[in-house]
Amino acid sequence: MEMSDWKGAAGVCVNEKNEVLLVLQNISEEDGDKWAVPAGGVEPGESLEESCKREFFEETGLEVTVLEELKVRSGQYENFDVSFNVHYFRVEVTGGELNTHDPFGLILDVAWKPVGELDALDMVYPDDRALIRSMVKN
After folding, report:
1. 23 lies in a domain?
2. Which residue from 5, 2, 4, 3 is spatially nearest to 74, judged by alpha carbons?
3. In this structure, are residues 59 and 107 in contact, taking their beta carbons and an 8 Å threshold?
4. How many domains is the chain partitioned into structurally?
5. Range of the domain at 114
6. Boundaries of each Nudix hydrolase domain copy (predicted)?
7. How far is CA 18 from CA 30, 93, 120, 135, in A?
8. If pLDDT is split at 50, 70 and 90, which confidence band does 4 have?
9. List of E strands, the chain
10. pLDDT for 138
């Protein structure tokens, strides 16, 4: 039986103040805590857009509308025969209140971070910075 591919969805939200909504994740004792856009795995029967909205709400407490797909991150997990595809979507907040609902306790903080300060943040995926910057309205 071959390993199934892991599919995920990520929501990228940049507000009118050019701040991006990020979550602080406890990666591991060695790696410490790092920032990322809200994201997670697609559950059975969910579309990518539905997954993006659910994960965003679970991790931030905010309800969002998915506007467009931005990119797909593909790769292979080291040490595992599993390939992954994470679809990044541009989202906008439509409701809710900022707080973590994360049932797994992996999210330590949720915050709007100025896009200009991304270089100072320890990011889970450093190349997300370029994608986030590309969304800023000049």
Report:
1. yes
2. 5
3. yes
4. 1
5. 6-130
6. 5-136
7. 32, 14, 16, 9
8. low
9. 6-12, 19-28, 32-36, 39-41, 62-76, 83-96, 107-114
10. 62
